[in-house]
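Protocol step 4 of 5: obtain the predicted structure for the target chain.
Materials: sequence only (see below). No template structures provided, no constraints applied. The aim of this step is simply to have a reference model before the mutagenesis design in step 5. Sequence pasted as it appears in the construct record:
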Amino acid sequence: MAVFVFKQMGSTNAECKNPCYAHGDAVVAVEQTAGRGQRGNTWSSKAGENLTFSLVWEADFLAAREQFLLSEAVALALVDTLAGYGLEAHIKWPNDIYVGHKKICGILIEHDLGMAGRLARTIVGIGLNVNQTEWDESIPNPTSIALLTGERRGTNDVFGDLYEALERRFEQLKSAPQSVQTDYLARLYRLNKPSTYALPDGKQFRGTIRDVRPTGELMVEHEDGGFVKPYLFKEIEFVLNGR
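Step 4 output (structure tokens):
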């Protein structure tokens, strides 16, 4: 494991695509100018206030169809780290980290496939709000460790805590992958609680999350009809103001 720190960088995920980085290596940017999030969104972070980094993992023990387990392990490591600071976090499917109804962390995971349909190389991008307390009004429902605890923390210290948690969850993924999914479900945001959801055409409905398949589909019970339907990423979205 080696940690490479850059004062400024466009995207740590893009940097980690360089094959010079090996399993366990991390690229940290004090300022990230072109950070990316899920759904093609950008990730906004004030320079020096937060933790923005990417990590290289080689989980070649996982088949491509099991890649969501890796996403679950990463999300759980973040929940573990925040718990160490007295914060009860939950995972908003598929892998945003929330405290209460506010987002404290985003994750962007990119995979390369190897031989026989297995994972070869994975880049885990993490943006964790540590000390930032103000955001542009266009950023929806953000929060940070400092806002929630009233204390500023060194980003290097937070990185150390999080890296250790990531290593623990990676080892769990290798030895007991089923337990990773069990832990993920236990920390899932809005599990078994009626909520409002939106479909790609803008139509909204009330439903309740009942499960997440090992392959990543969100299982939602529709209020009108009582049937349970699986949804893939980008096929459904929370309507947070419609809780």
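Step 4 remarks: The chain has a mean pLDDT of 93. Residues 114 and 120 are 5 Å apart (CA to CA).
Proceed to step 5.
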